[in-house]
TrEMBL record:
Its EC number is 2.4.2.17. Pathway: Amino-acid biosynthesis; L-histidine biosynthesis; L-histidine from 5-phospho-alpha-D-ribose 1-diphosphate: step 1/9. GO terms for molecular function: ATP binding; ATP phosphoribosyltransferase activity; magnesium ion binding. The keyword Glycoprotein does not apply. Residues 98-247 form the ATP phosphoribosyltransferase catalytic domain. It is found in: Cytoplasm. This is ATP phosphoribosyltransferase.
Amino acid sequence: MSNQVDTPSSSTILTPPSTAVAPGGDRSTKSSFGAESAMSLLVESLKDRLLFAVPKKGRLMEKTLELLAGADIKYNRAHRLDVALVQNHPIALVFLPAADIPRFVALGSVALGITGQDVIAESTHGDQISELLPLGFGKCKLQVQVPVTGPIQTLEGLSGGTIATSFDVLARELFSGENGLDKKVMEGKKTRVEHVGGSVEAACALGMADGIVDLVESGDTMRAAGLHAIHTIMSSEAVLITSKTPHPTLTPELSPLIPLIKSRFAGVLAAKRYVYASYNITRDNLPTALTITPGRRAATVSPLDEEGWVAVSVMVERKEVAKVMDELERTGAEDILIFSLDNCRVGV
Ligand SMILES: Nc1ncnc2c1ncn2[C@@H]1O[C@H](COP(=O)(O)OP(=O)(O)OP(=O)(O)O)[C@@H](O)[C@H]1O
Ligand SMILES: O=P(O)(O)OC[C@H]1O[C@H](OP(=O)(O)OP(=O)(O)O)[C@H](O)[C@@H]1O
């Protein structure tokens, strides 16, 4: 990925579009407006709204849009326009490249954002960012990779050579010994860091670099290029962020939207993570069953209209559900039912 955090994309927020959007998200063409009118209309429509930056493309976009839908944040986005007014809240979504979002948030241009922890770490404004909620998608690792069959197989061996990457800041930090590595080994040699905007994995085969620093999820890209990882710089996932310095336009009316959005997102994520289980069991077997399904706080246990039996309702992690059902069955549980959750509030 291209990661030029200090060079905001040419796609600026308020570029006057040929098709303007009237307040309220009307998609009609306003050909009678000039660029200036379109711009002032847009600026006017952003007044008294919380500005929320979301990835406009790439790996984080789709899941972010799903999260917004799950949180009932409704909007119309006009063709080619990077701003969309939310219909049911005083919020405007601003669609930006993920790598630019830390900068816009840190500088107070927008109040909230969604981006990857990797681009926050790479950003020179990273220390001004506060992470409000991990979002459970966009999970990947930033790794140092070298050709599997090459002569260099260690970080120490790479130091003094050439590294290709979109993560220049983190790569330089690593090879200058600022990242917990042996400072003496790294500092002695000058490692060249070459910026590459994408397809970083091709750099070694093309003879441009001895190693690369790039993101890895499944590892397919790395393996296909004949590379393997020799060091992990960091793990990353998408996060909801705000600035450590309160946003200048955050009025008492808009401020409560931040905890509201965080709480709605947490509910959507929890509903994906958990299922609701219910089963019947004898009182004798209840203590064992509760060790299998302790619940988030505690299970709800209600007496059944049959002597010696109780009904249990409890939340269970979705990924554990098959194993939990097997164990409950072995413990004598009957009528085990699993329900998917549409949404929930279970505490952040
Ligand atoms: N393979 C991957 N698996 C999971 N998450 C990833 C992966 N690659 C990137 N990401 C996450 O998605 C973010 C955006 O990466 P992506 O490459 O989609 O950026 P982009 O905005 O489309 O930029 P570019 O056009 O330069 O590629 C990364 O910063 C990282 O947090
Ligand atoms: O481990 P994997 O699952 O194969 O994913 C890793 C790849 O994903 C990202 O690139 P992306 O596909 O977003 O394209 P890019 O190279 O143009 O940035 C990253 O830069 C790797 O190349």
